[in-house]
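Researcher: We plan to redesign the surface later, but first we want a full-length starting point. Tokens attached.
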């Protein structure tokens, strides 16, 4: 097994056997967009407790996916994890997470060894929350080049949340474990995130 500290990156040049744990440091108690940098991690009551996930109204827990379809009367486009439920982090999927204190999100699973094609769509919104599926940095310019046809022409950028506001970026690098929004130019399709986009920058 191997444990990778927050901010470090690993790009495999051969087969990785055994579990990989990536610790993603969260500096505060604000919402952050995250994505699992390993394959096979699940979030259930045990993961929620171990990672200090906050509780909300009723059975809501501080892990949410984004659904750009018909908005919910209460939560709009956000769909919160429920107490007692179990789900797997989707490869290349983005999540909004909230901690009760600063600390690490710990993701454990297999090392990702394939290109990832998260589903994107246009519905009530064009926004789609996806994320970096690798325990390495992701080249934003390379991602945009590969997804030019997938992204709204007026929004050829990734939108990252810094805990307080959104920033749109066309260059730079997405951190391991970081989620981000894109604006879909297709009614239904897939974004392309490839191993070739990985970087140590």
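Model: Full-length starting sequence:
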């Amino acid at each position: 097994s191997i444990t990778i500290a927050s901010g470090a990156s690993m790009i495999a040049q051969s087969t990785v056997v055994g579990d990989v744990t990536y610790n993603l440091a969260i500096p505060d108690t604000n919402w952050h967009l995250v994505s699992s940098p390993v394959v096979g991690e699940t979030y259930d009551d045990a993961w929620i407790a171990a990672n200090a996930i906050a509780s909300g109204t009723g059975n809501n827990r501080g892990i949410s996916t984004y659904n750009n379809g018909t908005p919910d009367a209460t939560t709009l486009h956000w769909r919160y994890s429920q107490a007692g439920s179990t789900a797997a982090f989707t490869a290349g999927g983005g999540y909004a997470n909230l901690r009760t204190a600063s600390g690490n999100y710990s993701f454990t699973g297999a090392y990702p060894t394939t290109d990832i094609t998260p589903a994107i769509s246009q519905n009530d919104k064009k926004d789609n929350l996806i994320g970096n599926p690798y325990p390495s940095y992701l080249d934003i310019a390379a991602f945009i080049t590969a997804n030019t046809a997938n992204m709204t022409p007026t929004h050829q950028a990734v939108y990252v949340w810094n805990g307080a506001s959104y920033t749109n970026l066309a260059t730079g690098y997405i951190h391991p474990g970081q989620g981000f929004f894109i604006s879909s130019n297709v009614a239904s399709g897939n974004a392309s995130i490839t191993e070739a986009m990985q970087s140590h920058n």
